[in-house]
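thought: user wants a sequence for this fold. calling inverse folding tool.
action: design(structure=
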């Protein structure tokens, strides 16, 4: 509770603006659906749930602030069924202080619900293997389906379960009909998103395939090394080294409890590692591996009586997270002048001020829609300029389908409309021919660093004639 309150205070105290993906998810949450261009719907649903009373940055991020501690509770719940309570408690604390969790706790991402439902499904699986009770199998299936509605990488849960069932202690469940009924339940829960994709020509699946970059040449060992190094950063160098040692130990796989945890950890690391080798993978894509992974690390430390590692892991992670949380204050105290390349918060800054200028222009032109040229401008100005969803459009003369706003807010049907046109592409006259009158109405110039400024060019377009090529 204290750590969560501290993280909420960081968001409020530093006034952390939304980054572009958060603003996009917020826009989705204003029009709830069973799916969106690049992600399943859960992140939008959660934002809508927690931002019902307000739309501040803290409101948007309340879901992630609460889901990560709830996932730590699931780590404890699973660990206390396997090991002494002291080990389970340490694992939960370690999970909550993981560098990846600490970073993601400040921003609303799809990892937060994925972590939670992966953890709930894993807990359900362990209970089902022990009890064979219907409610435990159904818990696993429902949680797996909700995980798929959170992020498509939840599909790695299937090979993880398969690896668990290859262990001698659990092989008999291959013939258990309740396992397959649980899988059917997961599919039923996921079906609405699947049907949404059918209606939208599988746009989400196409996007997921595109970002995998499997068509851009195979075998990139340097990217695998980069991904592996990223895991040391995500989990913490000490904990990840212990985890790798545990996964490579025969004794781990020979014990039902340790083997279960290893089987719920290794497939995600292997699948995303292979993705990194063949094309590209971000470090956070393997995040769910650390749910069972933290328990495996905690148990190894307890078994080998290396109590000092508990303190080292938690304190080192908290110190590193504090350096990130207070980066600006520390840089200022040290007399360091930040640049866009040395400030990890660089992508967040400037848009609240730019949005205020654009909002003022919209008040001067109440008859006009707000038009922008790309996803970032749409998401951030939709949030910070407050135009309202019905007043926001994206300029798309080529008929692209590269983001959700191309699908839902293309201005091709707004013939005769007037617009306030805002774009970071300065100057921008490519749209002028599509209006009867095109007027420069202002310029936004917000200095951020010595090497970077946020600039917007503002125009008024009158009587849209349709896209002119």
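)
observation: tool returned 469 residues.
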């Amino acid at each position: 509770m204290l750590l969560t309150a501290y993280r909420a205070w960081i968001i409020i105290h530093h006034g952390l603006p939304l980054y572009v993906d958060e603003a996009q998810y917020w826009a989705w949450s204003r029009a709830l659906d069973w799916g969106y261009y690049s992600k399943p719907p859960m992140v939008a649903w959660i934002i809508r749930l927690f931002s019902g009373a307000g739309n501040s940055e803290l409101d948007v991020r309340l879901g992630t602030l609460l889901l990560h501690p709830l996932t730590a509770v699931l780590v404890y719940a699973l660990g206390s069924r396997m090991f002494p309570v002291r080990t389970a408690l340490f694992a939960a604390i370690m999970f909550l202080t993981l560098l990846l969790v600490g970073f993601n706790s400040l921003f609303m991402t799809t990892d937060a619900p994925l972590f939670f439902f992966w953890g709930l499904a894993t807990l359900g699986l362990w209970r089902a293997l022990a009890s064979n009770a219907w409610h435990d199998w159904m818990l696993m299936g429902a949680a797996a389906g909700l995980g798929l509605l959170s992020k498509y990488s939840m599909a790695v849960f299937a090979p993880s379960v398969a690896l668990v069932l290859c262990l001698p202690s659990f092989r008999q469940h291959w013939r258990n009909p309740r396992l397959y009924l649980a899988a059917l339940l997961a599919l039923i829960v996921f079906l609405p998103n699947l049907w949404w994709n059918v209606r939208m020509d599988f746009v989400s699946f196409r996007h997921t395939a595109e970002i995998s970059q499997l068509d851009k040449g195979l075998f990139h060992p340097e990217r695998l090394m980069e991904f592996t190094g990223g895991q040391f950063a995500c989990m913490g160098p000490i904990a990840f080294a212990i985890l790798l040692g545990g996964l490579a130990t025969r004794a781990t796989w020979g014990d039902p409890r340790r083997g279960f945890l290893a089987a719920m950890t290794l497939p995600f690391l292997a699948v995303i590692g292979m993705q990194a080798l063949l094309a590209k993978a971000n470090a956070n894509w393997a995040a769910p591996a650390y749910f069972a992974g933290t328990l495996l690390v905690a148990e190894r430390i307890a078994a080998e009586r290396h109590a000092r590692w508990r303190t080292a892991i938690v304190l080192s992670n908290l110190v590193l997270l504090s350096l990130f949380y207070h980066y600006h204050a520390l840089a200022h105290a040290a007399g360091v002048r930040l640049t866009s390349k040395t400030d990890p918060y660089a992508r967040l800054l400037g848009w609240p001020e730019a949005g205020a200028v654009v909002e003022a222009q919209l008040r001067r032109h109440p008859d006009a829609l707000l038009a922008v040229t790309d996803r970032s401008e749409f998401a951030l100005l939709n949030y910070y300029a407050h135009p309202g969803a019905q007043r926001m459009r994206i300029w798309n003369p080529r008929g692209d389908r590269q983001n959700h706003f191309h699908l839902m807010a293309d201005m091709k049907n707004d013939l005769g409309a007037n617009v306030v046109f805002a774009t970071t592409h300065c100057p921008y006259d490519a749209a002028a021919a599509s209006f009867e009158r095109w007027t420069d109405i202002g310029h936004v110039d917000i200095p951020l660093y010595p090497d970077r400024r946020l600039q917007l060019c503002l125009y008024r377009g009158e009587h849209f004639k349709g896209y002119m090529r």
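thought: summarizing for user.
answer: Here is the designed sequence. Strands lie at 368-372, 392-394, 418-423, 435-449, 452-464.
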